[in-house]
UniProtKB/TrEMBL annotation:
PANTHER family cross-referenced by the UniProt entry: ACETYLTRANSFERASE, RIBOSOMAL-PROTEIN-SERINE ACETYLTRANSFERASE
Limits of the N-acetyltransferase domain: 16-182
Origin: domain of life: Bacteria
UniProt source species: Blastococcus goldschmidtiae
A Pfam family assignment: Acetyltransf_3
Protein name (record): GNAT family N-acetyltransferase
InterPro entries per record: Acyl_CoA_acyltransferase, GNAT_dom, Ribosomal_N-acetyltransferase
Length: 182
């Protein structure tokens, strides 16, 4: 599938800007990989070596050409330092849908970076022709993520029972959605 080009102006909100990953972000990927939950719900390997982190960056740099979506580094606008990742996944674009996911490094949490990253990626999503709905999936116990979704204007739409396996156990997931206005 041919996806739209990278945005000419980097999506931004609050203190963050969304940019492409570079090799300089390997330390961020390694910090993400040190979190017990992140490797269970993402493609970040647990306890990544520098080489594994660089491989992950390489794969994420190619997500758009691969027709998968946009994998953005969440960076502090004032310094460019990466503090996380947000993905806009577009495999269902022919049906007018996308999903998003976000990760913030343990040492950078609680400072509003996830909320700003989700607001920025959602604004970018509405520039994608043919996209009408963005959805995300959150474990009910993941209070920080629930609050992130709500804060960015996503509506809870229901509980999907036994929706996916995480860490060897079937998990219920809340589904949140945002829809294009007008
Ligand atoms: C979920 C996650 C992305 C939040 O990142 P963050 O940058 O710390 O979030 P923010 O600082 O933007 O805070 C977002 C909201 O969560 C709240 N929050 C942050 N940490 C919290 C915590 N430990 N417990 C409860 N609420 C928390 C904030 O107060 C804020 O809510 P508010 O706007 O209503 O005050 C981060 O914890 C993370 O990467 N977790 C592991 C991966 C993950 O769960 N990803 C989401 C999968 S659905």
């Amino acid at each position: 599938m041919i996806l739209p080009p990278w945005p000419a102006v980097a999506p931004a909100h609050g203190d963050v800007v969304l940019r492409r990953f570079t090799e300089d972000d390997a330390a961020l990927v390694r910090e993400l990989s040190s979190d017990p939950y992140v490797p269970l719900i993402s493609t970040v390997p647990a306890a990544a070596t520098r080489e594994q982190a660089l491989d992950w960056i390489d794969r994420n740099q190619r997500r758009r050409e691969d027709g998968v979506g946009f994998s953005f580094a969440v960076a502090v606008a004032s310094t460019g330092r990466a503090v996380g990742q947000v993905g806009l996944w577009l495999a269902e674009l022919p049906s007018g849908r996308a999903s998003v996911g976000y990760l913030v490094a343990p040492g950078s949490r609680g400072r509003g970076f996830a909320g700003s990253a989700l607001a920025a990626v959602t604004a970018f999503a509405w520039t994608v022709p043919g996209l009408h709905r963005v959805q995300l999936f959150v474990e009910p116990s993941n209070e920080a993520s629930v609050r992130t979704a709500r804060g960015a204007g996503y509506e809870p739409e229901g509980l999907l029972r036994s929706y996916r396996e995480i860490g060897g156990r079937r998990r219920d997931m809340l589904i949140f959605g945002a829809v294009r206005e007008g």
